[in-house]
Amino acid sequence: MVELNETLGLWERSLIAWPDGQQDTTTFVAWLQGPSLFADLRQPANPPSFDDVTCLNDLQCHHLEWLARQEGFAGRFARAGDAFEWHRMIDYQCASDTADAGYLSFSDGILVERGRDIPYIEHWHQTSQRIPPYFAARMRDQNGLEGFLVRVGDIFMYVRNRAVTLPRGGSLAQLVSDGSPQETRSLLDCEISLGRVREGSWLIGRSSLPFRVNADLAPKFSGDDANIAIADITAAGEASVRNWKIVDLEVDPQKQNSPGKEHDEGALFFFQSMTGRA
For residue range 102-115, what is the model confidence (pLDDT) as tens digits? Predict the structure, then answer.
């Protein structure tokens, strides 16, 4: 049986197959698992060129159609009986009433996921080492938006929810097709970014907002009030900073061995991880 700590790190999917014979091997899918909080990004193949796009307001119809086909989510990963469930707190697409749950097993080094409530098979390959620092933070900004920051080794994923609420069970593609340009951009203003920490810079390599690629997340952590400031950009392309309050923090369980000191030690380790001194 797969243990929760065996899922820590970055996983990329090579295959999803359904009982009717259909399968997908071309969608880019990355899942970064922290101690229990996780983030996930799924991007269709053959994206349009975003070379001339620098901000949300630059997106054109052909960009919007492709962006609406993306998927991704963030939340908490937990055992559910013999299966595991990905409890989605943020969803790029319209939320579904069907649980995201599957049975996990290893086969020749491949993590095989079999759907519990929907029949499918997925093949996952670990593409990062399970090495420190690793932590995950669930955050909230001053407007009530939810966010996540997950890091394992030098890999990170950052997730920021959109300001508008999608209808449960709806179709994002249809909403985008029916909406005005301004409404459509608001519907797609949900960031799920995957990147790598290099020499102190948090560089984005893939993003649900492709104009964010190569940007430095530049997170700054304040241990006194558990705040994180993250470099952002306005819809018009102006540099900005988004301030987050940490509402849930997970760190390396080995750093939490003293009862009553979990919060203080966790915050200290998190700060050291952010600044490269862990």
Answer: 999 999 999 999 99
